[in-house]
Write a structure and sequence with these properties.
Layout (H helix, E strand, L loop, with lengths): L15 E5 L2 E7 L3 E2 L5 E9 L2 E2 L2 H4 L10 H12 L6 E2 L2 E2 L1 E5 L15 E6 L3 H5 L3 H19 L3
Antiparallel strand pairs: 1-2, 2-4, 3-4, 4-5, 4-9, 6-7, 8-9
Helix pairs in contact: 2-4
């Protein structure tokens, strides 16, 4: 896999700027879609001027933690979307998956900072939001989650 991937495409919404030290990074997302069974789907990514950064670029300066980046990002993102994500039988309706697996499975932080995201939202909360407002809420929550990866 090359060191940097190009962005997955143009962002559906205007990319948001992220604050990670002195680096100029942006988070973007693909146009969301919805499945017949109510899952809201999108691709989320973090880029700089050279393309999609790696999770390692977003992690703590002291070095990557032992658990994979999505294992850390998932709880932060679901917390940022607290009350909006549907909970059924004690499980939150959020699923995150990498766009590309790392070349070395023992180095999960050395993979592109792009993921497939699926959410099931609380129907009454989601019904009060316009589609672009819902997408913006997810993108901002993702951006905040990415910013906090380096602080944990």
């Amino acid at each position: 896999m090359p060191d940097r991937l190009p962005p997955p495409g143009p962002s559906f919404l205007r990319e948001i700027e992220l604050t990670l030290g002195d680096r100029a990074l942006r988070a973007g997302m693909s146009r969301p879609s919805e499945t017949d069974d109510g899952w809201w789907l999108s691709v989320l990514w973090v880029v700089d001027d050279d393309g999609v950064v790696t999770w390692r670029d977003l992690g703590p300066r002291a070095g990557p933690p032992p658990d994979p980046p999505l294992a850390r990002l998932g709880p932060i993102l679901s917390g940022n979307l607290s009350g909006l994500i549907l909970e059924e039988a004690g499980r939150l309706g959020i699923r995150l998956g990498p766009i590309a697996a790392p070349d070395d499975p023992t180095q999960p932080w050395r993979s592109p900072a792009a993921l497939r995201a699926a959410f099931r939202f609380e129907p009454l909360r989601a019904a009060t939001m316009r589609p672009n407002e819902l997408a913006e809420t997810v993108l901002v929550a993702f951006g905040r989650a990415v910013e906090s990866l380096g602080r944990r």
